[in-house]
């Protein structure tokens, strides 16, 4: 199927599908006229990529794990990859804590500001 239908079927924008191709995450077939031809397995991969990205993983980690998922061995994901994901998650937790502190400071400022408004 061509990219418009692939986009519709996968639920991922055509722009994102092209981006995944540009990044080497998918390799669609080509028709004789040069149009991309997306098969079901490519669309399945597109859905997996989208899911991983939506879970917050950066593209570099998605790129690392895809070969393991492609061969149907998600348990074969190496320990180093798991440690990378844990480090990424821990970094998110640190950023969230910082944002919560900023929000608390803003809340305190607003309470004071509202109390002094006449």
From TrEMBL:
<dbReference type="InterPro" id="IPR000551">
    <property type="entry name" value="MerR-type_HTH_dom"/>
</dbReference>
<dbReference type="InterPro" id="IPR009061">
    <property type="entry name" value="DNA-bd_dom_put_sf"/>
</dbReference>
<dbReference type="InterPro" id="IPR047057">
    <property type="entry name" value="MerR_fam"/>
</dbReference>
<feature type="domain" description="HTH merR-type">
    <location>
        <begin position="1"/>
        <end position="68"/>
    </location>
</feature>
<keyword id="KW-0238">DNA-binding</keyword>
<dbReference type="Pfam" id="PF13411">
    <property type="entry name" value="MerR_1"/>
</dbReference>
<protein>
    <submittedName>
        <fullName>MerR family transcriptional regulator</fullName>
    </submittedName>
</protein>
């Amino acid at each position: 199927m061509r990219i418009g239908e692939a986009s519709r079927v996968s639920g991922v924008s055509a722009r994102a599908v092209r981006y995944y191709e540009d990044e080497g995450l998918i390799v669609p077939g080509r028709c004789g006229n040069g149009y991309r031809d997306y098969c079901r397995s490519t669309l399945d991969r597109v859905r997996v990529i989208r899911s991983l990205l939506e879970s917050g993983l950066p593209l570099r980690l998605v790129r690392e794990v895809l070969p393991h998922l492609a061969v149907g061995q998600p348990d074969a994901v190496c320990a180093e990859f798991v440690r990378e994901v844990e480090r990424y998650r821990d970094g998110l937790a640190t950023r969230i804590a910082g944002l919560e502190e900023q929000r608390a400071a803003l809340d305190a400022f607003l309470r004071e500001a509202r109390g002094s408004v006449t």
